[in-house]
Design goal:
With 446 residues, the protein is of the alpha/beta class. Helices cover 52% and strands 7% of the residues. It has 4 domains: 26-113, no CATH class; 121-176, no CATH class; 184-316, Glutathione S-transferase Yfyf (Class Pi), Chain A, domain 2; 323-438, Rossmann fold (3-Layer(aba) Sandwich), CATH 3.40.50. The protein binds iron/sulfur cluster (2 copies).
């Protein structure tokens, strides 16, 4: 690796010089300037590991972004491909000795490159529909999920796949993610009192995908929190945290959703805002950065970001009631990238699992390497996502575990798909589903 400066190989179609297409924010520029090209990040980057190409490494991508911002190269298809292939898993941040906040740079670059990206008219319309019409509008998302559930019950989804109307990863994921009868918004009241004396007042983000696909995990979260002295509110006006818009490069849309959630969650007066999805928690912890330039929201965003805790982080920090019932399984733990690398939460979920009587926790090789889920990455970059998933499932098979625990809906869906396609036939559960079983509640199935 060494300290050699990275080399951009000129590619056919690259313009040698021209107008800069990126005007990086001050924080992105500061992050870029910290990079000393040491290459320590290369060893942990899943795309570099798989392809061995400098431009598909963190250092190479930072170099591409710097050159785009200085007008030395143009955003040709090839340049965009290298940037698109990044999972935004932020493993490089954990490895970087200089403290480069790679995520800030790539997210800033992606948001700006959306404006210059050539896209067919229909694809632009579809993107706008999901970005502005579905994820920020829980009622529409629920209506679509009910439609998907009906089509799953009637077998229309499988018929559509057979006819080639729905293809590839999207078809497989839709088939693996069976929509439950009730969403968490149907199951859970707006306010759940603490069991016994109230020790904390918390508010739960029920999420968009979590609401419609992981209602039982949201219900388990409320039960476990209440069992540990939390009064739990689920404010009705909340919407998707904005991370999906972020992944699509829709930064203004993400900001709009952040403002709405900030108002709604501050209104609850909760001491802590709890998330059980790593990607959502990571985004909400960045609301302060996202809205730093908004005089009306900067301070409120800072307040909200400071209150956000992943549920495993929160529970591991309080005096937790010992779970009484044994859960006799051999389990392993898969770190969600946006929990381990994005929030530095690694020990806490393991601590909770090790408190469960009867549960044998075995370690997973490369547990903090991305499984290939990464928001919508597994749909838009299916080949790389599949390569990462295969390797992950091989590592899981080597543990001999019957259960894989994780703390993020996207990872859980990807690992369930992996178990179905490649084996081993493991059960994939949220850490909180297992803890909930040990408290004697629910069956923990997401
Ligand atoms: S991002 Fe960090 S680890 Fe990677 S080359 Fe730059 S300084 Fe080194
Ligand atoms: S975020 Fe992940 S995929 Fe992207 S450059 Fe960093 S380590 Fe590689």
């Amino acid at each position: 690796m060494g300290c050699r400066p990275p080399v951009i190989v000129p590619e056919r179609g690259d313009e040698p010089a021209g107008q800069a297409v990126l005007a990086l924010s001050a924080s992105s520029r500061a992050a870029l300037d910290l990079c000393v090209h040491c290459g320590f990040c290369l060893a942990v980057c899943p795309t570099y590991d798989h392809l061995g190409i400098e431009d598909d490494s963190p250092r190479g991508r930072l170099h591409l972004i710097r050159n785009l911002s200085e007008g030395n190269i143009q955003p040709t298809g090839k340049v965009l491909e290298h940037l698109d292939l990044c999972l935004d898993c932020r493993a490089c941040e954990s490895a970087c000795p200089a403290g480069v906040r790679y995520g800030v740079v790539i997210e800033d670059a992606r948001a700006q490159l959306e404006a210059v990206r050539p896209r067919p008219f229909w694809a632009g319309g579809l993107r706008a529909f999901f970005l502005r019409g579905v994820f920020p509008r829980p009622a529409i998302l629920r209506a679509l999920a009910r439609g998907l559930r009906l089509s799953q019950r009637l077998g229309l989804d499988r018929a559509a796949t057979k006819l080639g109307l729905v293809r590839g990863r999207m078809a497989l994921l839709a088939d693996t993610a069976r929509v439950p009868r009730q969403f968490s918004s149907d199951l859970l009241p707006g306010l759940t009192p603490a069991r016994g004396a109230r020790r904390y007042k918390v508010a739960l983000l029920q999420g968009c995908v979590n609401d419609v696909l992981f209602g039982p995990t949201n219900a388990a979260s409320v039960r476990v929190l209440a069992a540990n002295g939390c009064e739990v509110s689920i404010p009705a006006g909340q919407c998707c945290c904005g991370s999906l818009a972020f992944h699509f490069g829709g930064i203004e849309q993400a900001r709009a959703q952040a403002r709405r959630n900030i108002d709604v969650f501050l209104e609850t007066g909760a001491e802590y805002i709890i998330t059980n999805a790593a990607g959502c928690g990571s985004t909400m912890k960045q609301y302060d950065h996202l809205l730093a330039g908004d005089p009306a929201y900067a301070e409120k965003a800072r307040l909200v970001s400071a209150k956000v805790r992943d549920i495993t982080e929160f529970l591991a920090s309080i005096d937790l009631a010992p779970p009484p019932l044994p859960v006799r399984v051999k389990a392993t733990y898969q770190d969600a990238c946006h929990l381990a690398h994005g929030q530095g939460v690694r020990a806490q979920p393991r601590k909770l699992l090790s408190m469960i009587p009867g549960l044998e926790l075995v370690s997973l090789r490369d547990s903090d390497t991305c499984c290939g889920s990464a928001g919508v990455y597994n749909i838009v970059q299916p080949e790389m996502a599949d390569a990462l998933l295969r390797r992950k499932m091989e590592n899981i098979a080597a543990t001999g575990a019957q259960v894989v625990a994780s703390a993020n809906a996207g990872c859980m869906m990807q690992l369930r798909l992996g178990a179905r396609l490649y084996g081993p036939p493991v059960e994939v559960l949220h850490v909180i589903d297992l803890l909930d079983r040990a408290y004697g509640e629910g069956n923990g199935h997401g």
